[in-house]
Amino acid sequence: MSENNILGTVLAGGKSKRFGSDKSSAKLGDKSLIEHTISKIENNFKEILIITNNENIIFNNNNIFLINDIIKGYLGPLVGVLTAMDWVEKNKKNYNWIATFPCDTPFFDQSAIETIINYPKKSSKKLFFLKSGNKRHNIFGLWSMELKDILSKDINHGYRKVEDWANKVGSEIIEINSNNDYNFLNINTKEDLEKAKIKNK
Q: What is the C-alpha separation between 71 and 137, in angstroms, rounded?
C-alpha cells in the first residue's frame, strides 16, 4: 500500500445538528477543527479532498479540493465516501483507495495515518476501519474504489449507517493501541468543544 494510490478525504458534510452550527469551522486554539485534521494528514497524501456543504471553507492549497456531497440532503458519511469515489472517476485520478478522516476529532494520533497507509496488502477485504479498545472508528476508514458501484446501489436502496453497510459488504478491523481516551474525542456538542479546549491548553 502506498499513499500514491490513496486519496486522503475529510468528511465534513454533516448537519452539525447537536452542535448548533457548522462544527468544522469551530475554533480550537488558533485553528478550526477542520484545519486540525488537515494539518495532521496533509504530509501523508499527494492530494486531499474535503467533502463539505459549507461554502465558507477555503484552503489556499493547490493540492486540497473542496466539493459538495453528490446527493443533497445531509444523508451521512456513506454519501461522502461515494462523493469522493465519484470525484476520482470523473477527474480520471489513479487512486485505488479512499482514506477517510473526520473533521471533528482533533486529537487523533498521527500514527493512525501511517497504520492506514501501510496496512498489509495480503487481506482480500476492500474495507478497513481503525479500532482502539472496544470501539470501532467508522470514519477512520480505508475504502477500495472497487466498492463504488455497490455503495451507490445500496445508498439508493436506503443504506445510511456506515456500520450497517460495512456489516453487509464485510470489513476488516485494524487494531491500534490507544491508551488516551482523548485521542478519539469526537466533538458533537459545544460541551465537547469546551472539553477539547481544556485538553488543548
A: 24
Torsion of CA 167, 155, 45, 23, to 10 degrees: -100
**191: buried, middle or exposed (CB in 10 Å: 19+, 13-18, 0-12)?**
exposed
Grid cell locating 40: 495532521
Closest by CA to 34, choosing from 201, 187, 176, 197, is 187
Q: Tell me how far the alpha carbon of residue 160 is from its chain's centroid.
A: 15
Q: What is the pLDDT of residue 25?
A: 87
**Residue 153 cell numbers, joined:** 446501489
Which CA distances in Å does 150 have to 81, 121, 139?
A: 12, 22, 19
Task: Write out the CATH class of domain 3-200.
Answer: alpha beta
With a CB cutoff of 8 Å and minimum separation 6, the contacts of 190 are: 19, 20
Condensed to tens digits (0 to 9), the pLDDT of residues 48-90 reads 999 998 877 888 899 999 999 998 877 899 999 999 999 999 9
Domain range annotation of the chain: 3-200
Rounded to the nearest 5 percent, the helix, strand and coil shares of the chain are 35, 25, 40
CA 134 to CA 65: how far, in whole Å?
34
Rounded CA separation 182/195 (Å): 9
